[in-house]
Design a protein that fits this description.
Layout lengths: L6 E2 L3 E2 L1 E6 L4 E8 L4 E8 L2 H13 L10 E3 L5 H6 L6 E3 L2 H11 L7 H15 L11 H34 L1 H7 L9 H9 L3 H5 L3 H10 L6 H12 L8 H35 L6 H5 L6 H11 L9 H8 L4 E5 L2 E5 L6 H17 L1 H12 L4 H22 L5 H4 L1 H7 L1
Length: 421
């Protein structure tokens, strides 16, 4: 961790800034290395407020070459973007950690926004070495992070709405679920959505003609196998099922299109964001290294880059990255008792990608498959073996990103490949 530079305000001293962030206004506090409060301001969340903040920092010795470090409880927003210009170190302090520091100075649990700003400034004054500044990622890397996280959120949202729709159809329309059961992605398929729009109730679905079903498939964009698929769907829809009372069925048939509209919007958003990721991610200098790993395609690779960033000095070693991803175990020891468990505090997005990556690598890499089976034979459960495999692969990724080397199967798993052969 780099040390804070010396700033001059009448005498040589170290200056630290804390900002209590809010939606409309912010409280700012400046302290010196002795803990004395030098200045405090209440600024608005607009260009005028940002200028007041920068002028205040400049008044106390902030320069482009020697900026004053800032502690704030968020890593996003325009205020953070303004502060991150140049060489300034911005520390995003976890609100829970800030609350613990607050208790060090007051047992009455009193709280105020100016007081929180002072607490944040004192965190840097006393324990800056224990906190990590925001990484110096490139603009392209940060743009890819925005798109990859948005696409991941859209995918989760699509699945959530799809589950809601499935639950509703189980109540009154099982024929629709059976018709979509053979399709990949099920209800998220355009054919399924078009069929539900054409016949929102099972009574109407049973009256659909072969021509109407063919027309629905064509509107959904299907090009081949239309006749055979129309015959299959017609047979499924005309199978004998239990029915809700007619009035209840019609009411459910009016509720279902509302969910269908949300599902179509979620599917469109996920597809559009996936295309945006496919356009931007290959332009990144680290893309070739990431895509050389088995199990990582454009979407998963972009999510990995989004979470680890492209600042190669962010993690001191591979162990730091493994802990950040939640793949390495953690040891808890007290007296004669000790336990080794998985990590609960981690980057949840990167950890989620890790399981998908490890699962995909089982079919794409003989070495990864052999490593997984060796862990299962050693007594690991499926999830534990996958996490162990992810832990090994992310360590390999760290090495390749540091050296610029592409993944090599023989180098990554020499002993396992020889044993399998």
């Amino acid at each position: 961790m780099t040390s804070v530079n010396t700033y001059t305000k009448g005498r040589n001293t170290l200056i630290y800034c804390g900002i209590d962030w809010a939606e409309c206004t912010h409280d700012v506090a400046l302290v010196d290395d002795s803990g004395q409060l030098l200045a405090k301001r209440h600024i608005t969340d607009d260009a005028v407020g940002y200028k007041i903040l920068l002028d205040l920092l400049a008044e106390y010795g902030d320069t482009e070459e020697n900026p004053i470090p800032v502690a704030i409880e968020t890593s996003r927003g325009l205020l953070v973007a303004v502060l991150r210009t140049g060489k300034r170190q911005v520390f995003a302090i976890n609100p829970m950690a800030a609350a613990r520091y607050r208790d060090r100075h007051s047992v009455s649990r009193k709280k105020s926004d100016p007081g929180d700003a002072l607490v944040l400034a004192n965190i840097l004054r006393t324990d800056m070495h224990a906190h990590r500044p925001l990484p110096s990622d490139s603009d392209l890397g940060r743009a890819i992070a925005v798109l990859a996280r948005a696409q991941q959120d859209a995918t989760w949202n699509r699945q959530h709405i799809s589950n809601q729709l499935r639950s509703l159809l189980r109540e009154y329309y099982p024929a629709a679920l059976n018709a979509a059961a053979t399709w990949t992605n099920g209800l998220c398929r355009p054919e399924a959505r078009e069929l539900l729009k054409t016949a929102p109730t099972p009574t109407r679905a049973a009256r659909l003609t072969r021509t109407q079903i063919q027309a629905a498939l064509k509107r959904a964009g299907r090009k081949r196998g239309i006749d055979a698929e129309a015959d299959r769907i017609r047979e499924v829809l005309r199978t004998d099922y239990a029915h809700q009372p007619l009035l209840v069925e019609e009411a459910l048939g009016k509720q279902m299109p509302a969910l269908l509209v949300q599902l179509e919007a979620a599917c469109t958003a996920a597809d559009d964001l996936a295309k945006a990721v496919e356009e931007s991610f290959p332009q990144h200098p680290d893309a070739d290294v990431i895509l050389s790993f088995p199990g990582l395609g454009v979407q998963l690779g972009a999510r990995v880059l989004a979470e680890i960033g492209d600042d190669h000095n962010r993690f001191a070693d591979a162990r730091g990255l493994k802990a950040y991803a939640g793949s390495s175990p953690i040891t808890r020891a007290s007296g004669k008792k000790s336990s080794i468990t998985r990590r609960w505090v981690k980057n949840d997005r990167l950890n989620h990608v890790g399981y998908l990556w490890a699962f995909s690598a089982l079919t794409a890499s003989p070495g990864a498959k052999a490593h997984y089976h060796s862990r299962r034979q050693a007594g690991d459960w499926h999830a534990s073996a996958q996490r162990n495999l992810f832990n090994r692969m992310i360590g390999q990724l760290y090495h390749c990103l540091q050296t610029g080397e592409l993944f090599d199967e023989q180098t990554a798993y020499p002993a396992l490949i020889a044993a399998a052969a």
